[in-house]
């Protein structure tokens, strides 16, 4: 039974009775989504090792094909618009982030300048206070 089930598994992509589908490599198939113009948003089972170079070429659609070219083009164009919108938003987000980082750097630099000015004003105040105390002492000395 094991040999017939494995030959079925490899030739049809069917499972081992555990509810999973397996490829010619013997690995569990992954469900992927096609975004080609011919099969937009059509899910399929594909070999998980496809990108690694094994390329056992196990492939089986999960979804039925769309009924006509109009629907295929409509879904493909909608996906393209959403992808473009997402990229534009990411670009805007990146620009906003860079702008905010630049603003934060400017604020930090201004804060350093303000702190150094405050230290100077503190020293100046202490000096003025000492001069005033000395003046009062000299002016009211017996």
TrEMBL record:
The keyword Metal-binding applies. It comes from the Eukaryota. Residues 23-65 form the GRF-type domain. One of its GO terms (molecular function) is zinc ion binding. InterPro entries: Znf_GRF. It holds the Pfam family Zn_ribbon_GRF. Keywords: Membrane, Metal-binding, Transmembrane, Transmembrane helix, Zinc, Zinc-finger. The chain crosses the membrane at residues 120-141. This is GRF-type domain-containing protein. It comes from Centaurea solstitialis. The lineage of its organism: Eukaryota, Viridiplantae, Streptophyta, Embryophyta, Tracheophyta.
